[in-house]
Amino acid sequence: MAKLKMTAAVTSQVQLAEGIYDLRLAAGEIAAQAVPGQFVSLYSKDGSRLLPRPISLCGIDKEKGELRLVYRVAGAGTKEFSALTAGDTIDVLGPLGNGFPLLEGKKAFLIGGGIGIPPMLELAKALSKVNGGEMVQSVIGYRDSHMFLKEEFEPYAKVVIATDDGSVGTKGNVIDAIREEELEADTLYACGPMPMLRGVKAYAEEKDILAQVSLEEKMACGIGACLGCVCQSKEKDSHSHVNNKRVCKDGPVFDAREIIL
Q: What is the value of pTM for the model shown?
């Protein structure tokens, strides 16, 4: 799969919640190749910010040639992106990384926490096409009642909510919600903060089910050259000959059994 760098036009941008933005880009060449779980790198127009910012794909519309990026403002780069409006342009590199394997005939948990929620939406759409919506259970963790994207999951999956403050759904984390609702699945997919992923990995080991986890990591090059975004692996990497995997190149999706969280 070829990586493409192109100048994309902004088709729209709206704010979904405090600090959370929904950006849509006309990027047909990238959308044509992209799959759920991949990401793109966005480039700042400010010459002092040389490194691109990686943002996961929330939506891939191949017919319209459009990418949907739902992201949190976390620094100067994403603050700049949040000011983009329809008709503006931005340089984009992608699609990057691997994607989630779409396992047929498997009842699945799709577990998202915080800004790890957006990439699970395109996965929910894809898995519901493969296996039917009754086989897909989206378990989503929020801080509070500001539940961005929740309603968009509902046509494709059974939706279960956990909130840190208990304002909606289960008070606690996503694993607490799974246990409280007595849910079961054959496999799970997850993206979110590291403490959540550690809990997901432990749960998968306890239940002896396959877990595919997408890691969030600060990146420099985004293409596997600089080794700036490694995670610890059980096996030695063929590129660096140490127990590391490059999140941008070997991931961001990994079999949880292959990595140490």
A: 0.91
Beta pairing partners, 141: 113, 162
Residue 156 Cα to chain centre, angstroms: 17
Tell me which H or E stretch contains 133: none
What's the CA dihedral at 30, 102, 208, 184 to 10 degrees? Answer: 110
Q: Among 94, 77, 80, 73, which Cα is nearest to 21's? A: 73
Contacts 24+ apart (CB under 8 A), 78-85: 78/53, 80/44, 80/45, 80/46, 80/49, 81/21, 81/23, 81/42, 81/53, 82/13, 82/15, 82/21, 84/10, 84/13, 84/23, 85/10, 85/13
Q: 246 has which bridge partners?
A: 230
Q: Convert the pLDDT of each residue in 197-250 to its tens digit.
A: 999 999 999 999 999 999 876 555 566 665 666 566 656 656 666 566 666 667
136-142 and 39-42 strand pairing: unpaired
Distance CA 19, CA 37 (A): 22
Give yes or no for a contact between 250 and 258, defined as CB atoms under 8 angstroms apart. Answer: no
CA within 13 Å, CB half, 72: 12
Mean pLDDT along residues 79-99: 97
Task: Give φ, ψ of 150 to 5 degrees.
Answer: -50, -50
